[in-house]
């Protein structure tokens, strides 16, 4: 069975400081990993996916299969980055494609 | 273009009652999934429907059921409500192709008292 672990429930950093949100996964197949973000009073939205290898809003994430990790990083945090961040793994079971989410990390960027 | 829409946004039910939640996917999307998000946890997969057929089911009791209509909208039904069913129920849609982005609605907040 697949599992996603986000060890930090809460994370606070000062504006301009680097930030790293940790995500570890377990999955027997080839993983497809995502970061979703939920700003206050807004819906869950995709931030980035590992297959795109893109940077969104200054965030990047690299899939490390050896360490089974997909940590989210940003070199200089901004106050508008304060939000709830979820790491998710997409698995295929039969004909179903489902997302397995971690429990989330609430990031607060202090002025 | 409207995103995924869900109704109702909030509702309160009593233990033992039944509830129906509704979802309209993004136009052109044929796949709808349902997730339950209990306070303090990440969303948990309940069902996926594609072209009106159930494609997958998470680890939820038979009290939970769903269906998808010819217009690709979907309903989630929960019978014999328990206090533990109190949660945010999220609907998500995608066009069903492998690798395509999954878009979420704002959710329906269910409180069981």
What can you see in these coordinates?
The complex is a heterodimer of chains A (111) and B (113). Chain A has one domain (3-110): Immunoglobulin-like (Sandwich). Chain A contains no helices and 11 strands. In chain A, a hairpin with a 2-residue loop joins strand 9 and strand 10. Chain A starts with a strand and ends with a strand. With 111 residues, chain A is mainly β. In chain A, strands 2, 5, 6, 9, 10 and 11 form a 6-stranded mixed beta sheet that branches. In chain A, strands 3-8-7 form a 3-stranded antiparallel beta sheet, with no helix packed on it. In chain A, strands 1-4 form a two-stranded antiparallel sheet. Chain A has strands spanning 3-5, 10-14, 19-21, 24-26, 32-38, 45-49, 60-61, 72-74, 83-93, 96-101, 105-110. Chain B has strands spanning 5-7, 10-13, 19-24, 31-37, 44-50, 53-57, 64-68, 74-78, 87-94, 103-104, 108-112. Chain B is built from no helices and 11 strands. Chain B has one domain: Immunoglobulin-like. In chain B, 37% of the residues are buried. The mean pLDDT of chain B is 93. In chain B, strands 2, 4, 5, 6, 9, 10 and 11 form a 7-stranded mixed beta sheet that branches. Chain B has a 4-stranded antiparallel beta sheet with strand order 1-3-8-7, with no helix packed on it. Chain B is mainly beta. Chains A and B meet through strand 6, strand 9 and strand 10 of A and strand 4, strand 5, strand 6 and strand 10 of B.
Salient structural properties:
heterodimer; A: 111 residues; mainly beta; Immunoglobulin-like; six-stranded mixed β-sheet; three-stranded antiparallel β-sheet; 0% helix; 49% strand; globular; B: 113 residues; seven-stranded mixed β-sheet
């Amino acid at each position: 069975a697949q599992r996603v672990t986000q060890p930090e429930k809460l994370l606070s950093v000062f504006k301009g400081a680097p930030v790293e949100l940790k995500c570890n996964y377990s999955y027997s197949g080839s993983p497809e990993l995502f970061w979703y973000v939920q700003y206050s009073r807004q819906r869950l939205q995709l931030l980035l996916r590992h297959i795109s290898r893109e940077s969104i809003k200054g965030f990047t994430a690299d899939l490390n299969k050896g360490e089974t990790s997909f940590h989210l990083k940003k070199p200089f945090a901004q106050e508008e980055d304060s939000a709830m961040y979820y790491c998710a793994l997409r698995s295929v079971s039969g004909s179903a494609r489902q997302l397995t989410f971690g429990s989330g990390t609430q990031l607060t960027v202090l002025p | 273009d409207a995103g995924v829409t869900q109704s109702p946004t909030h509702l309160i039910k009593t233990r033992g009652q039944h509830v129906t939640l509704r979802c309209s996917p993004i136009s052109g999307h044929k796949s709808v999934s349902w997730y339950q998000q209990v306070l303090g946890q990440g969303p948990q997969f309940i069902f996926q429907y594609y072209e009106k057929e159930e494609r997958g089911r998470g680890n939820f009791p038979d009290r939970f059921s769903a269906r998808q209509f010819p217009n690709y909208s979907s309903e989630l039904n929960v019978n014999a409500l328990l206090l533990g069913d109190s949660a945010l129920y999220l609907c998500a849609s995608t066009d069903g192709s492998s690798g395509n982005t999954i878009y979420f609605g704002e959710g329906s907040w269910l409180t069981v008292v």
